[in-house]
Amino acid sequence: MLHTGSCHCGKISFEVEGDFKDAIDCNCSYCRRRGSLLAFVAKDALHLKTDPADIETYRFNTMKIAHNFCKVCGVEPYGEGTAPDGKPMVAVNLRCLPDVDFDKLTINKWNGAEH
Ligand SMILES: [Zn+2]
Q: Tell me, what DSSP letter sits at residue 70?
């Protein structure tokens, strides 16, 4: 299924392929502040419709994950990293996909604070 997603102001917009039934609610020092619900897809499932120059990136701790956020509104629709097998992955913030019904998601808590 193809979903449309964006930051709040729309400067970052994209389509993403995925059948999202589960989401990860992480409690690390970053996610607990941000309040996102994450789902992981292969990088080629995300079709960005935005000039990369409009995207800002934040990295912390191991610096391995690129947290991509909008320079205008500050919302982070997705992050980028690498799966254990080396494949490029995207962590989509399901809260930035207007057609996702959060009440139908199974929320899996991830103890990122201790990883
Ligand atoms: Zn924005």
A: E
